[in-house]
Amino acid sequence: xxxxxxxIAVIIKTFLIQPFWIPSESMLPTIEVNDRVMVNKLAYQWxxxxxxxxxxxxxxxxxxxxxxxxxxxxxxxxxxxxIRTRGHEDLIKRVIGLPGETIEVTNNQIVVDGTxxxxxxxxxxxxxxxxxxxxADDEVFxxxxxxxxxFDSRRFGPIPLEDLxxxxxxxxxxxxxxxxx
Length: 181
Description:
Layout: H1 2-15, E1 17-21, E2 36-40, E3 54-58, H2 69-80, E4 90-97, E5 102-106, E6 109-112, E7 115-116, E8 130-134, E9 139-143, H3 153-156, E10 159-160, E11 164-173, E12 179-180
Antiparallel strand pairs: 1-2, 2-11, 3-4, 3-11, 4-9, 5-6, 5-8, 6-7, 9-10, 11-12
Helix pairs in contact: 1-2
């Protein structure tokens, strides 16, 4: 029975939904340090990212690590039972720019294809001007909600769609933070 439960947990974590630990302040005030969020890993298998989605993706600074099938299974099992958590090799940010759009920051405002972006989910923020960048057809431009403390597409560029792990949809821990994103 334990083996069956473990197998089901690994399958769910690998293909459907997965908890992620948030180690940084980059998404404050939306997501706090040490929160745990659930991520829908199927969200972009059958759909496209939308502006405002909170996404988890592979850190573009991390090199791809090759692992054997047994190593991948062991890692998945440890993550599924909570002994090991992902987090340091993955990042979480909000989608700001979609494929083909031009994004710039000017006068403390994000401008998408010449139109200022409304962001009612943010408190007042300060952003230095950033030159315009056009997002490729297979990428998204992401930014943390805590614009002053977020290492995001302004520094490492747009994220390839293939690097998106999934869409964060709910905070599950701590109990006082439970709620939709």
